[in-house]
Each structure stands twice: as C-alpha cells, then as structure tokens.
C-alpha cells in the first residue's frame, strides 16, 4: 500500500471533530496521527469519541502536534476565534489546512492563498462539505438566470456563532455572478421591526434561523410570475459532511494555493 495521508484533526472533541476522527479511521488512504483539543491534553481519544484509535491521546499544543506527527493535512472544525491562527500555523509548517469553520473574509482567504503558494502546498476552505449542499448551490445559481427574484432562509443549531452561514454567503456569491444587482420587494416597504426583511446582499434577502434541533438546512426560494421554485438541502446529521471531508483530505495533496468551496474539487 502506498503511504497513507497523515491527518491531524483539530477540534476533535466537538461533534464535527468526532465524526471526522471516525471518517479518517475508516478510510484506508488516510491515517489519523493527531487529535488536538485545548482542554483534553493527554486524554485518550477513544475515551471521548468511542472509537478505538490505538492509544492515540489528545494534545493541546497544535505546533508540537504538527511537527511531531509530520502531518500532511490538518482538518479544522473549531470556531472563528481560533481558526485564523490555526491556519497560519499549519501553513507555517507546510501542513495543508482543510477547514470547515466559516467566518473568514475574502481578503483573509486571498492572503492564505498566497501563503500556500509560497510553501508549495494546497488548502481547502469549504463553507459546506455536504455533496447535496454543493449541488443545491449549483442548481440555485442556474435557476437565478431565469428567476432573478430570490431569498434565502438558512437554519442551523443554536450553537452556531456566525450569521448568515458560510453556505448562505457562498450561495449568494454564486447567484450574484448570474444576475444583475437589483432591488426586490415593494420600493416603499417598511419594517415595523428592524431586520424583519433579513440581510441584504446585492438586493437578495437572507434570513438566519438559530434553534435547537437543527443541524444545517437551507432553502433558496425563487419567485416569478404565477410561480415559485424552492431548492432545499437538509443535513440530517453530521455524517453528511464526511464524504466531502475525506475527499478534500485526498484532493488537497494535488493543489497549490487555497481552494474556496468544495465545488472547485467536484466540478
């Protein structure tokens, strides 16, 4: 067997992190060599994830873990407060970041793209790793050519920190490439409660729902004369993201620069 791709999972204690640990362990082309969490140094990964990892322990030192494991890829599902430093650290050590955390600016992504190219490595930032969500965004961009009046409702669990979601922002960006910026709704409409009409992106409205019970869901609603079209994707559980994560760990080895959006690996 050819050398397996050596993967460190950052945020391995969290719900997405635990699913990633399982997915990496179950793929014969990947090898889990590190699990990082700032609160669990020295704790067996198996005790937290319920999956046997051959005695692998959590570390709270990302620099040390990336160096000692000779990692190829860092998968990161942490939060916006720490993700930027983690990406910088990975690139510094020549480790390819695969990132599912959202909330980065286009300027930051462009800077990481340059840094990756300087080191001769690839990176992936994906607002959504679910294949169905990528198809939903692609179909929405196509539909906008014919039905330019569109609003987005995205619904996530109540622990999500950023709004709108990275998936909603990516969807808006893709649609904006296919339609002219335009106003929607009545020109004299009035909000009796501020924010009732949602956020405004080039005339498109986006609404964020945060409630317990949700995982990740999005509706893209188009309106036309005498008709509406709704394109919807639902992630029922976090396993839905794992095929995209595993694919990214493999494909990132072939790239130089930062890839923004899983669609760039699929199509």
Brief sketch in words of this structure:
The chain is α/β, with parallel strands linked by helices.
Structural descriptors:
Dihydrodipicolinate Reductase, domain 2, Rossmann fold, 267 residues, elongated, 5-stranded mixed sheet, 2 domains, alpha/beta
Report on this model:
This protein is α/β, with parallel strands linked by helices and 267 residues long. It has 2 domains: 5-125 and 239-266, Rossmann fold (3-Layer(aba) Sandwich); 131-236, Dihydrodipicolinate Reductase, domain 2. 34% of the residues lie in helices and 25% in strands. The chain contains 9 helices and 12 strands. Strands 3-2-1-4-5-6-12 form a 7-stranded parallel beta sheet, sandwiched between helices. Strands 8-9-7-10-11 form a 5-stranded mixed beta sheet, covered by helices on one side. A hairpin with a 2-residue loop joins β10 (216-224) and β11 (227-235). The chain is elongated and about 60 Å long. The mean pLDDT is 94.
Question: Topology, pairings included?
Answer:
Layout: E1 5-10, H1 15-25, E2 30-36, H2 45-49, E3 58-59, H3 62-69, E4 73-76, H4 80-92, E5 96-99, H5 106-119, E6 122-125, H6 131-144, E7 149-156, H7 166-176, E8 199-201, E9 204-210, E10 216-224, E11 227-235, H8 242-251, E12 257-260, H9 263-266
Parallel strand pairs: 1-2, 1-4, 2-3, 4-5, 5-6, 6-12, 7-9
Antiparallel strand pairs: 7-10, 8-9, 10-11
Helix pairs in contact: 1-8, 4-5, 6-7
Pathway: Amino-acid biosynthesis; L-lysine biosynthesis via DAP pathway; (S)-tetrahydrodipicolinate from L-aspartate: step 4/4
Subcellular location: Cytoplasm
Binding site for NADP(+): 38
């Amino acid at each position: 067997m050819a050398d397996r791709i050596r993967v460190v999972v950052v945020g391995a204690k969290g719900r997405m992190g635990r699913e990633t640990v399982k997915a990496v362990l179950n793929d014969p082309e990947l090898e889990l060599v590190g699990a990082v969490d700032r609160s669990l140094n020295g704790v067996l990964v198996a005790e937290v994830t319920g999956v046997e990892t051959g005695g692998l322990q959590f570390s709270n030192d990302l620099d040390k873990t990336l160096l000692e494991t000779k990692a190829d890829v860092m998968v990161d599902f942490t939060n916006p407060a720490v993700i930027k430093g983690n990406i910088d650290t990975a690139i510094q050590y020549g480790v390819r970041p695969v990132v599912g955390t959202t909330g980065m600016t286009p300027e930051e992504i462009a800077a990481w793209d340059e840094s990756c190219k300087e080191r001769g490595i690839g990176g992936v930032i994906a607002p959504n790793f679910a294949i169905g969500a990528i198809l939903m965004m692609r179909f929405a961009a196509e539909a906008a050519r014919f039905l330019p009046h569109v609003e987005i409702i995205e619904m996530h669990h109540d622990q999500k920190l950023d709004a709108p979601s990275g998936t909603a922002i990516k969807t808006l960006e893709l649609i904006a490439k296919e339609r002219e910026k335009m106003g929607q709704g009545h020109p004299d409409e009035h909000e009796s409660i501020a924010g009732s009409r949602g956020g405004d992106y080039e005339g498109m409205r986006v609404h964020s729902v945060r409630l317990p019970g949700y995982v990740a869901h999005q509706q893209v609603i188009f309106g036309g004369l005498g008709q509406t079209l709704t394109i919807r994707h639902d992630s029922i559980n976090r396993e839905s993201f794992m095929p995209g994560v595993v694919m990214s760990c493999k494909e990132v080895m072939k790239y130089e620069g930062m890839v923004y959006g899983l669609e760039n690996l699929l199509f």
